[in-house]
Design a protein that fits this description.
about 75% helix; elongated; mainly alpha; Serine Threonine Protein Phosphatase 5, Tetratricopeptide repeat; about 270 residues
Length: about 270
């Protein structure tokens, strides 16, 4: 059954690909692609699929046509109005994005959209690989870095440094997500504070770091936010070189982030 389904999907992706197009065929394909884009923008995704399929029959080498058809199938997959087995639209989208990438291995948007489908299927490693390619072939687009950061932070163990690297790139490229921008600020402060100094931490340093950590936990739990902030900031700024803090880099980032969010004015706009 699985092989039959796979064969049907491949047949769908390859529909009309029997012969190479001539120039009139390529011109016709471009017209169908433009019409398909307009239909998709208007919300007529079934009409868009039909137009992109005609483009593919006219020019089986049109990566843009496969990409457009894949996107229209994603929209149908997500639409509440779609009836029947909606998973078939996801399968078709995955097949079309894959063909688009085969035809144009530098097609950043196709990598990105395939990554979204793979991520929805919990295939996070493959999704991350596609996002890395999307970032590689569209280096000025921040979105791939945003989603890489989220994947590494939420779906992988011990990948927080990688997540923050991509969040930083997202911000550097002009990404506007408020929470991510704040997280990057905190992370930069943490890295600066935890930079290994010339002196070696003493036993007293380790003890003081542990005491400050306990002070933070006690005051934060008691709702004494100012005291808690003072404790954790001293912990990071004065004792960031200790093994106690170094082993808890991720936790320190979370603590600083929580305190920073708590201090944000209530009327401060946030990204959805």
């Amino acid at each position: 059954m699985a092989r039959t389904a796979a064969a049907l999907i491949l047949a769908w992706a390859a529909a009309g690909c029997a012969s190479a197009p001539d120039e009139p065929g390529r011109d016709s394909a471009r017209s169908y692609v433009e019409a398909g884009k307009k239909a998709a923008t208007a919300g007529d995704h079934r009409g868009a699929i039909d137009l992109f399929s005609k483009a593919i029959r006219a020019n089986p080498e049109s990566a843009e046509a496969f990409y457009g058809r894949g996107g229209a199938n994603v929209k149908l997959r997500l639409s509440k109005a779609t009836e029947g087995d909606i998973r078939i639209h996801e399968e078709r989208a995955l097949a079309d994005f894959t063909v688009a990438i085969r035809l144009d291995p530098t097609f950043a948007d196709a990598y990105f959209n395939r990554a979204m489908v793979l991520s929805s299927r919990a295939k996070f490693k493959q999704a991350a690989e596609d996002l890395l390619n999307a970032a590689r072939y569209k280096p000025q687009d921040p979105e791939a870095h945003l989603w890489l950061g989220r994947l590494y932070e939420e779906k992988f163990e011990d990948r927080m440094p990688s997540a923050m690297d991509h969040y930083e790139k997202y911000v550097d490229l002009g990404g506007t997500d408020y929470d991510v921008r704040e997280k990057v600020k905190v992370w930069k402060e943490l890295k600066k504070a935890m930079a290994t100094p010339s002196r070696t931490p003493t036993a007293d340093d380790e003890k003081k770091a542990e005491e400050l950590h306990e002070t933070f936990k006690r005051t934060f739990a008691a709702g004494q936010k100012a005291e808690a902030a003072k404790a954790v900031e001293e912990l990071v700024s004065r004792y960031g070189h200790t093994q106690f803090v170094q082993r808890r880099a991720r936790e320190m980032n979370a603590l600083l982030n929580a305190l920073r969010k708590d201090s944000v004015p209530k009327d401060m706009p946030k990204s959805p």
